[in-house]
Amino acid sequence: MKESTHKLMTLDFWRICIANFLLYAAVWMLLPILPAQCYLMGLNTQEISVSFLLFVGGMIGVGPLHAFLGDAFKRKYVLLLFTLAVALCFSGWLIVTAVWEVKLLMMLAGASFGIATTAGITIGIDITQSHRRGVGNRIYAFSGALGLLVGICCLSPLYLLLDFKNLVIISLVLFLLSLVVVTSIYVAFR
Questions:
Q1: What is the pTM of this model?
Q2: What is the C-alpha separation between 65 and 21, in angstroms, rounded?
Q3: Residues 6 or more apart from 56 whose CB is under 8 A from it?
Q4: What burial letters (b/e) apply to 83-103, b meaning 16+ CB within 10 Å?
Q5: How far is CA 181 from the centre of its chain?
Q6: What is the pLDDT of residues 39-94, one digit of tens each?
């Protein structure tokens, strides 16, 4: 007889999934509306495209750095630090005025998001029983995909009702909730 999934996954595993959901929702509620915000700031299409390429480049470029950080420091602290860094980058949208600031902000946000998501995946694997890692990986990935969908479909449309500043504040609240959830997770140092 098969055991149900919820009996095989620990409370800490479900917490990391919730933190992942909140992180993705916080990021993806703002990313779809940032091009419009950039346009309102006076950036042209090419500058906006380069900014988003820098975000993706930042995410991809940090792979080797994450491997070092994950081995040298407690993974939970790496996740906390870089989730906070993403939150700070997104709060920077309240004060940026120049094109170079937008590009720097996007590159730093992408790099921080890349490390935070990879640290979360690593923690999810660490706290899952070895014989249940396949199921755990699928559940964890689903939590991020669900956060992405909620961010884009439910929270981004708030742009029509609220000003950009309030959306950034809502995003920061989601980041804060993610940080709070991560602090409650026990991860053994390896």
A1: 0.90
A2: 24
A3: 110
A4: bbbbbebbebbeebeebeebb
A5: 14
A6: 988 899 999 999 999 999 999 998 888 778 767 788 899 999 999 999 999 999 99
